Amino acid sequence: MKLRRFIVVLLLLAAMVGVQIFLRATGQEFCLTQLTMALYYALVVIGLGLVMGYAGQVSLGHGGFFAIGGYTTAVLTTRDFSPFKDTAWVGLLKAAHVFVAKEDLFGAQVMVVTPWAAFLAAMALTAVVAVLIGYPALRLKGHYLAMATLGFGLIVYKILLGSTVTGAADGITSVPEWSLFGVLTVSGKTALRVQNYYIACGLVLAVLLLLQNLVHSRVGRALLAIHDRETAANAMGINTASYKLRAFVLSAILAAAAGVFFTHYTGGIGPSEASALKSVRYVALAAAGGMANLWGVAVISTLINYLSLRDWFGSYDNAVFGTMLIVIISIAPEGPLKPLGMAVRRVFFRLRPSGGKPHGAA
Amino acid sequence: MPNMLLKVRNLRCGYGSLEVVRGVSLHVCAGEIVGLLGANGAGKSSLLKSLAGLVVPWGGEIHVNGRPTRGLPAWHGVSNSMVLVPEGRQVFAEMTVRENLLIGGYHNKDRRMDLEIVVDRFPRLRERINQLAGTLSGGEQQMLALGRALMTRPKLLMLDEPSMGLAPLMVKEVFSEILKMKELGVTMLLVEQNAVATLGIADRAYVMETGEIIMEGEARDLMSNPEVRRAYLGKGYKEVWE
């Protein structure tokens, strides 16, 4: 099994490099921009796959978490904190190198939060919000989380739309680039396009590997058991509510992290990222990828989001995702990749036949 | 009373405004198999579920090993060495037999070792160790449910209708496994509609009707009790069962 995972990683890596080389050779390297954005969106969908495929819950608020991440960093890294320079807490944070002084567009000296500090703040805020929503909703059986998160997404959308701090309907622009470490910088500059494509690729691969290790461990077995039969899982001593909550919080954090990277990459964020349609779109993509099949989720969601960003669907964009969700749920609830994947596995990996004939009494 | 593992006093529970279990008192001593008999709807399963914490009791007392457990969530039971084998087996259909057993050993640090012991006990499970549990026959699934429960290293096992939906031959096999588990030192509370099979392996039994215990005694005595015979055993049961 370990070998199989290794092969999948190599295949994915080869595909990522192959795409880049192909685009360079054909002079279409501009496509990497949308591909990078699609990869960040894929991060949201992968996290959602964990919640849907393993914990058996649906979140209709992942657009909201993406926006919380993006807006937190956008606000903190563009807002001038120098008027508060002399208050105690800003002084304290300044000593901790949370702030950086720089010149704004008009040449004035401003003091803003560094991207790394903003990133950590976004993660912390998201974790707190996710626990506040998930804790009450996940103690109940059934799909209360879907309802709670739907409401949450709508609230976030309205707040972003109505606050001047978040730029109301315009959102926030001129978010600075984020130099991660060394030469790696999350930035939308044309010169850094290839580098940023690989940063996004690396992030997606790292998260996939992390989650694969998680779902193949004792924790993953517990999550699968909860998804399969909650009562029996409970009877086996698994604290089902706590596991569902942890999976939900982890996936919310992934969505927010994606939002942070995305915002630094595109240099801004708007309230539409938090709209209910965006959240439904994530759910549709997770379903299309086969939910529990995190590799499939990553590939399918990158591909379809890329096509959407390249405007292939034109004004039918949202209709495409809605139709996709309906078709998949009614025809192939486990995702279209599963039957396909089974065939591939049988040929290449000679995996155990999972449809052995039952025999014996009853 | 010698080493009372489970003591229930005046337990009541129900759904909505309907009281299903109406003041039940019973006890199970260490090493015993205790049967709980009754017709459909007598409240047996609800009683078991409230003992396991899956249904919140309305009132009464539950003591496991002398410690009160009423109101504790279901997942807590395993740490008290008290495990429910739920009605309808409830194996994890989309997981393999091995994964099902490992889930049983979720709180058990020696789960890999215990897995070997369990599949030694149930050779059928060893044969199918990598097969998805949903593809097993009903009897095999029941064996898996028992094996999975054994993985928790239980002191008290609560079995909810293990004979449900099984062919008579399979019922015999499952019950002989249950009897063997007694030899391992597992105490059992066995909820059943199948009175003959249950009284055949139980030490004592309770008979439940409309939410109350109407009779209790040694299994042998109940077997020869005319009222029990009329209500639960039926005429000519010997021909069918022996």
Secondary-structure map:
The complex is a heterodimer of chains A (362) and B (242).
Chain A: H1 2-25, H2 31-54, H3 62-78, H4 88-95, E1 99-103, E2 109-113, H5 115-138, H6 144-162, E3 178-181, E4 184-186, H7 193-215, H8 218-228, H9 230-235, H10 240-266, H11 276-289, H12 294-309, H13 317-331, H14 337-348
Antiparallel strand pairs in A: 1-2, 3-4
Helix pairs in contact in A: 1-7, 2-7, 2-10, 2-11, 2-12, 3-5, 3-6, 3-10, 5-6, 5-10, 8-10, 11-12, 11-13
Chain B: E1 4-15, E2 18-29, E3 33-38, H1 44-52, E4 59-64, E5 67-68, E6 82-85, H2 97-104, H3 111-121, H4 123-127, H5 138-150, E7 156-160, H6 168-183, E8 187-192, H7 195-201, E9 204-209, E10 212-218, H8 219-224, H9 226-233, H10 237-241
Parallel strand pairs in B: 3-8, 3-9, 6-7, 7-8
Antiparallel strand pairs in B: 1-2, 1-4, 4-5, 9-10
Helix pairs in contact in B: 2-5, 5-6
How does this structure look, described?
- The complex is a heterodimer of chains A (362) and B (242).
- With 362 residues, chain A is mainly alpha-helical.
- Chain A is built from 14 helices and four strands.
- The two termini of chain A are 33 Å apart.
- Chain B has 242 residues and is of the alpha/beta class.
- Chain B is 36% helix and 27% strand.
- In chain B, strands 6-7-8-3-9-10 form a six-stranded mixed sheet, sandwiched between helices. A four-stranded antiparallel sheet of chain B has the order 2-1-4-5, covered by helices on one side.
- Chain B is globular, with a radius of gyration of 17 Å.
- The mean pLDDT of chain B is 85.
- The A-B interface holds A 218, 221-222, 224-225, 227-229, 231-240, 352, 354-362 and B 52, 54, 73-79, 83-86, 90-96, 99, 102-104, 106-107, 124, 128, 130-132, 135-140, 148, 152, 165-167, 169-170.
